[in-house]
Design a protein that fits this description.
With about 160 residues, the chain is mainly α. About 60% of the residues lie in helices and about 5% in strands. The chain has six helices and two strands.
């Protein structure tokens, strides 16, 4: 705390058992990190039970949602910021080509196969089930409010860092 200011609030140490009356002083990084780790682990564990990875689902959705068949480079560029490393998406595309869930045409554009679309639909159902577990007891308004707050905090930090 600054020695000449008494209007600063001490931040409480991260405490998973913190009561609601002290949550305002909890570190947002702790809670966002815990939420990310817990939810991602739960989703990836559910997907692993059916021999699929989250990045594979990302690629299937990306190819499905593109207005025209995307190139390998376009899918890789779009999804690499989400991935665990710069080569993960390229590897996933190779896995999905090998699994015959994707095919590449003569121009190297990617297309879902029938098996790939069936897998994407099954995964969408699984993700919907997982989302229901994660969102239990959380209304849409609360969820939107939480994301709005997080988006504002990200924008505040980016502005402070000079990032646009």
């Amino acid at each position: 705390m600054h020695p000449l200011r008494d209007d600063l609030t001490d931040q409480a140490p991260a405490d998973p058992a913190a009561t609601d009356d002290v949550l305002a002083n909890q570190p947002v990084g702790y809670w966002t990190g815990l939420a990310h780790t817990t939810v991602t682990r739960h989703l990836r564990d559910a997907m692993a039970r059916i021999d699929v990875t989250q990045p594979q689902y990302w690629v299937l959705n990306c190819v499905h949602s593109w207005p025209a068949p995307p190139s390998r480079a376009e899918v890789t560029a779009r999804l690499t910021p989400l991935a665990d490393g710069p080569h993960e998406i390229a590897r996933v595309i190779d896995q999905l080509l090998h699994r015959d869930w994707l095919r590449a045409d003569a121009g190297q554009c990617l297309h879902l196969t029938g098996a790939g679309e069936a897998a994407r639909v099954r995964l969408r159902a699984l993700v919907t089930e997982v989302r229901a577990v994660v969102h239990e007891g959380v209304g849409d308004e609360e969820y939107v409010a939480a994301l709005t707050v997080l988006r504002t905090m990200v924008a505040n930090v980016q502005r402070a860092e000079g990032v646009t």
